[in-house]
Amino acid sequence: MAEAAKLSERKAAILSALVHVYIRTGEPVGSEAVATAARLGVSSATIRNELAALEELGYLSQPHTSAGRVPTDLAYRCYVDALPPRPKLPDPERRAVLEFFDEALADVDEILRGTTQLLSRLTHYASLALAPSRQERALVRLELLSLGQAMMLLAVLDTGRVDKCVIDLPQGAGEADVERVSRGVLERLRGQTLGEARAHVAERGKATGEPERAILARVDEALATIGRQEEGDHVVVGGAANIAGEDSFARRETLRHIFEALERETEVLGLLRQATVPREGPVSVTIGRESPMTGQWEASVVAAPYGAGDRAFGTIGVVGPIRMDYLAAISAVRVVAERLSAAVEALTR
Amino acid sequence: MAEAAKLSERKAAILSALVHVYIRTGEPVGSEAVATAARLGVSSATIRNELAALEELGYLSQPHTSAGRVPTDLAYRCYVDALPPRPKLPDPERRAVLEFFDEALADVDEILRGTTQLLSRLTHYASLALAPSRQERALVRLELLSLGQAMMLLAVLDTGRVDKCVIDLPQGAGEADVERVSRGVLERLRGQTLGEARAHVAERGKATGEPERAILARVDEALATIGRQEEGDHVVVGGAANIAGEDSFARRETLRHIFEALERETEVLGLLRQATVPREGPVSVTIGRESPMTGQWEASVVAAPYGAGDRAFGTIGVVGPIRMDYLAAISAVRVVAERLSAAVEALTR
DNA sequence: GGTTAGCAGTCTAGCCGATGGAGTGCTAGC
DNA sequence: GCTAGCACTCCATCGGCTAGACTGCTAACC
Question: Which positions on chain D have an atom < 7 Å from some protein CB?
């Protein structure tokens, strides 16, 4: 396996043709098949020479001497990099996307749930969505409700999400005190982020007497708790059934690994976060061993950030076998991310 | 396949022994193996006669003439019915359950999420939980917040859940009107169910003028919407990865079916609802073709209701292969359901 | 030099038939 | 009614064989 130097144009064309055929068939591709697919006007003998060279360079491998060639992760990388930068989504699919985002949906979480389902339907792979970080979103409303001997802090974010936290009522505080704090202090925190709100609450707490002071201390704590919840239900997964049926995942163990990771969620976070800063173009592709996670899964991830304006809120993406239909996945993810951004922008404005 | 008449004691013992061995090994069980496992003091020849009879009765089947016997769904049913009514959960597992329910958790949904994970860890199968119906739960608080040109209805239920619905502000209504309705009408609805609250809101709407009337009409609509959301995120699934690794699910298609159903959720609802009215004992078991759903999945479901007092709130259960370790599953589900009931009771009191 | 037709060589998937073994059903004796 | 013994059945396994799919190489060709 040698250095990944620049390939000659013909080698690149041959490689792309081979990957294309392999993605379709799933079987080792012979020189004859490549010759017909690549339409270079050269015979299979010439292709054979080139294939041998490409194997030497680390782009291809052979299951055994008298079999065709199978692409390595490196070959997929070349193939993906050579794809048109903005592949078109076929019309029926495009229409499905537009239709989905036509319906008004209440909050970002609901939209993301629907989006993962949409993406799975379009691509037939499992889908992921990274929800916007609570930390950075603005509070539309902060409300403290008294519930008998406890109180409940409700934080309505501009993403439409409502976070809650139940807090004990401090000694000597009554319903009236809770109400006073809710109206007097919390009302003014609209438009601030969770972090800013905490700072204000803490400061205000210093400048007042009991029992407001005690209540504000607990509110501060509750805001911290809400901020910490973030990691918990941050990743939305949809259409996992699709990869259960996928026979590219031959080994059961691999399938199990993926499902476990999807359930643990935190592991997927890093993968999606990394896609938030795309290396090139709006859609980022991670192929097999390019990342430890996808390497272990024997899978690839196609992801794209979404957000409002130039600010990325989160990421959506699909997980599929390394032998994935990258063209379809990339175009679907790209279009859905665009529409999702528009929807989120409309919601948070 | 003949009628499921009452089996002789010996036949029953032989059947149970065979099922027991088969659950352990997964391979067709021969007469010799049954003879050693059943410890009846009779030879394998006698067992052979009985096995032939049991096959005739529809309890067993043979993959081919010279193979051992494999239990049919009917055999599992006998086996399960003959299990001790309150099997003991081994101590380490029992301790894990107690530990889990020792931590105070904020609301029922969070508890259920944790419970499915707990059950999956205990049984190594996928777990389900049916959340309490919103319709029947009491409102702890109903709050109408004004958000610029819209308002948000928040319903805090006694399960700790907060449901929300965004509504447009009617023509001519302002923040003050919203507030007036919130304090004047909604405050009084504490302790009522969603349905009762709707009735009150509708009635009150008639007896008042604009713009309260318009606001109340929309609140009524929003309450209906919240009630309808019920079906959506009603079923919690956990540990699905466990059955992805399970090689009892030989056919990929079967696995895919199960995952699809778990994702659609609504399909699982019926299955769990039916377990809410147990035929006998606290834990209900549905084996393979006993229900169309599990039949298609080639799976079994072990489920038990949970609730406060004598009132069932919902159901928890596990989904596994027909060749499931029923003893372990039943004891785990039973103990977890008991503890969960206690936790929910403490929460809603 | 690059390209190509042709061919020998390699490796596998699939088929065949033989073999060993597991397990049954039946029978005859206890 | 139970059991030892036995003939019989059927499958899983293995080695050997074959057809076929590709390759790599060579020699001729442009």
Answer: 2-5, 8-11, 20-26
